[in-house]
Amino acid sequence: MSSTAQDADRQLKTKHRALWASGDYPAVAADLIPGLGARLVEACGVRAGQRVLDVAAGSGNAAIPAAAAGAAVTAGDLTPELFEAGRARAAQHGVQLDWAEADAEAMPFPDDSFDVVMSCVGVMFAPRHQACADEILRVARPGATIGLINWTPSGFVGNLFATMKPYAPPPPPGASPPPLWGDEDHVRELFGDRVSDLTMHRETVVMDRCASPLEFREYWKRNYGPTIAAYRFNESDPERVAALDGDFLTFLEKWNESTEPGRTSYPAEYLMVTATVR
Predict the structure, then answer these.
(1) Cα–Cα distance between 143 and 134 in angstroms, integer?
(2) Which of 48, 96, 128, 251 has its CA 20 to 30 A from that of 231?
(3) Element (H or E) spanning 196, and its range?
(4) If we measure between CA atoms, which residue out of 174, 106, 161, 95 comes closest to residue 136?
(5) Is the pLDDT of residue 81 over 80?
(6) What is the pLDDT of residues 84-109, one digit of tens each?
(7) Terminal CA-CA length for the chain
C-alpha cells in the first residue's frame, strides 16, 4: 500500500472509530439486543478452554457470554472507547477477558490463533468486506468455528439504513453496504471454498423498548452512531434535517407491529452464519 493510500486508510479508520464512539452504543446493545450475543455463543457451541475471538466486539455483547461459558476470550474492536462499558459489564457477570484495539480489516493477531472467531452485528460495519473475511479466516485455526450474526438487507435494520442513506455521508471508495453481510450469496462469495459446513438461516429479535415511533426515533438519534452521523451531515440545512426527521418517523410508523397503545414492536431479522474453517 502506498503512503497516500495508508494515509487515506488511517483517516477512514479515524472517522469510523469516531462514529462508533459517538452516542451510546453499549446502551443500544443492552437495551435492544441484550440476548443476541448469547444466541451467537450458543450457535458456535463455545465451551470451556476454547480460545475465542469476538471481532468488532463493541462492549462485549457476545464476548462476555463466551467468557461466562469458560472460554479464553479476546474482544477486539476498532473503538476502544467502548471497552470501559464492556469491562464494567464483565465485572458484573464475574468474568475476565482480554480487550484489544483491533481493526477487523487488519487484526493484530497471529495466524491460526483461535478455536472460534465470531462477530455479533459488528464486523458487518467495516467497509471492506472481503478484507474482513480474509482476516477472520487467517486468525482462525484449521477446524475452527466461525459464527456471525448480521442484519439482513430486507429486515428492519437493513431498511433503517436504506431510509438514512439519502441523508448519510457518502461511503468511502471501495466500501460495501453493511447489510450485504446479511445476504447468503454475499457470504458464500466472501468465504468461498475456504470453509465447510456453511449453514445460514434467518432469525428475528424483537425491539420493543419505546412507547411510540417518535420516542424510538429520538432514541436512535441520541444513541446510535450512524444515525448521529446522518444528522450531523445535514445539520447546516434545516430543511434536510426536517426531511430526515419525517422520513425516519414514517419508516418507524410503518414498521411498528404493535397494536397496543403506548407500545411498539419491531421484529429485526438477522442472518445466523456458522461454518468450519478448512
Answers:
(1) 16
(2) 128
(3) strand 195-207
(4) 106
(5) yes
(6) 999 999 999 999 999 999 999 999 99
(7) 29
Phi, psi of 144 (to 5 degrees): -70, 160
Name the 3-class secondary structure at 166.
helix
Q: Could you tell me if 33 and 149 are in contact, meaning their C-beta atoms sit under 8 angstroms apart? A: no
* E strand or H helix that includes residue 239: helix 238-255
Angle among Cα 51, 53, 59 to the nearest 5 degrees reads: 130
Residue type, 128: R
**Using an 8 Å Cβ cutoff, are 208 and 265 in contact?**
yes
The reported pLDDT for the residue numbered 1 is: 63
Per residue in 222-270, pLDDT tens? Answer: 999 999 999 999 999 999 999 999 999 999 999 999 999 999 999 999 9
Bridge-partner residues for 207, per DSSP?
266
Pairing of the two strands 195-207 and 266-277: antiparallel
Phi, psi of 194, rounded to the nearest 5 degrees = -85, -5
Enumerate residues 6+ apart whose C-beta is below 8 A from 162.
none
Dihedral class, residue 272 (left if φ above 0, else alpha if ψ from -120 to 50, else beta) = beta
pLDDT tens digits, one per residue of 6-48: 888 999 999 999 999 999 999 999 999 999 999 999 999 999 9
Give the contacts of 93 (CB within 8 A, at least 6 positions apart). 64, 67, 68
* 170 has pLDDT over 90: yes
